[in-house]
Amino acid sequence: xxxxxxxxxxxxxxxxxxxxxxxxxxxxxxxxxxxxxxxxxxxxxxxxxxxxxxxxxxxxxxxxxxxxxx
Length: 70
Fold this sequence. Notes:
- By secondary structure, this protein is mainly alpha-helical.
- Helices cover 57% and strands 0% of the residues.
């Protein structure tokens, strides 16, 4: 990642993508993308490496969004 994610970023992103995740189990992952990916992999057929990639995609600013997508 180019910038350090804000506190709780990976947890919020995981809940946005998989809203029915067990929040207590997610908190126990301590914002570790590897552990979050392992947790999510138990609930989906998506490979763990793909889940980690989705969680760790770069943070895109509003300005970058306008540049990329018009």
